[in-house]
């Protein structure tokens, strides 16, 4: 963890609210994955929807990872950050076919997740451009229904029960299918979910003779609460290696395995610092009102997500119970009845695990500007995004009255 002194220094230097990312933590998380799967034909593509600041993308690129993208602009950012087209995977959802055509012209891997687009792509390009197909395995997984993406009611992927339909399109159009993809959800603790998905995908391989790789998405769990544990990637790698070895012996086919870690790489690298505006006592509750809200960190409100909160200014204060809330004209409660060292007006509060889906989901609700971002490495810090201003909010508005 970054020292308390350095965190306070950055809060004073850049102001609050403030996002800070530690480069070394991103690198160490990537090394954990590559070490666990060492000796196995495995590739990792960073899911940049978690945090897409171009400085973070450049760090990931230098580490040797690929890039998982979900939009045309994410693909463009990846290319600007230095990724080669063959290092980029594009997995759209409910986009217009014209966006897929634009991405196709960039030469990246394309992952198609619905019958309509699959048919349009096959009719337009036939076997001239290889694709992946995203399947829905009907597996319920993930830490919250809103981040579960592989169940029967999910909008993502083509149902495994539509295999015959997929096969008819492939046969009719000559579509070149070189990979299969599944992603069942986020914050998956049980490695059995990945093994179950792998079994489903291995059963599908015989239907697509051109398959070179299987993409299991990601969803690796990182600990948010003190009593939580991360996904055991070492054990997962061992069990997957065994399953793939058996498959190879029975089929004579060697497959590459792809993963798309996002939160796993950047969540623990991130710190979000806010300042206490008011301490407000009511007949029932003591509120710590801070200078931010769900416009800057929406995970607690959207997903009921837990973030550890530290009092940087008064770490040894007498412990008291607080409900931490924001400054928006909405209910923006970060936590109820949290035990914290005594909170005083002007104190800095730190939210841990803020690297993933923090700034990335921020908005200008209430016309409050988005915070600055800072990169921290080896005791030094650098501004990587300026704090927005009123001029930024007005930039694209057109006065017509």
Describe this structure in words.
The chain has 401 residues and is of the alpha/beta class. It has two domains: 91-261, Alanine racemase (TIM Barrel, Alpha-Beta Barrel); 267-394, Lyase, Ornithine Decarboxylase, Chain A, domain 1, CATH 2.40.37.10. Helices cover 30% and strands 23% of the residues. The protein has twelve helices and 18 strands. It has helices spanning 4-14, 23-36, 54-63, 72-81, 97-104, 115-125, 163-173, 192-204, 233-251, 263-266, 299-303, 390-394; strands at 18-22, 42-47, 66-69, 88-90, 109-112, 131-136, 158-159, 177-181, 213-215, 256-259, 270-281, 286-290, 309-311, 319-325, 333-341, 348-351, 372-377, 380-385. The strands form two sheets. Strands 1, 11, 12, 13, 14, 15, 16, 17 and 18 form a nine-stranded mixed sheet that branches. The protein has an eight-stranded parallel β-barrel with strand order 2-3-4-5-6-8-9-10, surrounded by five helices. It is globular and about 65 Å long. Mean pLDDT is 93; it is low at 141-148.
